[in-house]
Amino acid sequence: MNALEIKNLNKTFDGFELKNINLELPKGYILGYVGQNGAGKTTTIKLIMNQLKKDSGVIKVFGKSYEDGEEVYKDMIGFIGDECYFPINFTLKDVISTLKDFYTSFDESKFNEYAEKWNLPYKKKIKEFSKGMKVKLSFASILSRNTKLLLLDEPTSGLDPVVRNEVLEILQEYIADGEKSVLFSTHITSDLEKITDYLFFINNGEKVFYDITENVLESHLLVKGGLDDLTKELKEKLIGYKSSNFGFEGLIDSKNRDHISKDLLVEKPSMDDIVIFYINGKRD
User: Fold this and answer.
1) Does pTM surpass 0.85?
2) Running DSSP on this structure, what letter comes out for residue 186?
3) Residue 187, exposed/middle/buried by CB under 10 A (0-12, 13-18, 19+)?
4) Which residues of 134-145 are buried (b: 16+ CB within 10 A; e: fewer)?
5) CA 159 to CA 154: how far, in whole Å?
6) What is the mean pLDDT of each run of 10 residues along the chain (284 residues)?
7) Where are the domains of the chain?
8) Which of 15, 56, 199, 281 has the most CB atoms in a 10 Å sphere around its CB?
């Protein structure tokens, strides 16, 4: 069974259009949802959570749609954004009380285990928490429920590298039993390379590609050379490139490697390289 299925999803508002999004995320895997600001990532997540009403299309979480039953649907989903969603004057006691009221599957003892594991202070107000502590509080609130699908919208933004790695470890532990999945939206592409199984790249509300992460990295090449090497034929084959007085750098599909001169330097691209060249296109 798929953890998440989206079919022919469309939404138009405020001059923006999400166009015919289709994806399947099997249970037990992490999907990286990548694109620049305004590409449609947050809109998609809000549609999955039914915070926005779709114009058309189907969204199912473990085979259930929102229309099949709001309580069951919402209880399967956990959401973490780049800001803590609890009031800043709350203490952990207030958080526990709120979660008890809203979610039938909330387990207070499990929450306390995570709070103690991550040294979250019980008496301090959330406004006194560090950024890293707020993120861990969000995870404690999610992991102490019977969630099956995590929706993450820039959760590692602004975190130091140590805490970011801790978050990535939490995600790997979450899917370890093969029954849960994660949709991870972020602009920190190094995180995507480390942890995702699948990548969905969205730009201007449309799918650019959706594939296994390893396939995405292996199916592209970074090409570097002098301006004389940037022929018309090569330009046509490049997905994107940038040139200066010192030469050029571009991205090409590895299927077109026969069009690369032996004089050119060829490297394996980073996820950053791939995303940037797809977005920026061809620039002289």
Assistant:
1) yes
2) -
3) middle
4) bbbbbbbbbbbb
5) 10
6) 96 92 96 90 95 96 93 91 89 95 91 93 94 90 93 83 86 94 88 91 94 95 93 93 93 92 92 91 74
7) 2-204, 220-280
8) 199
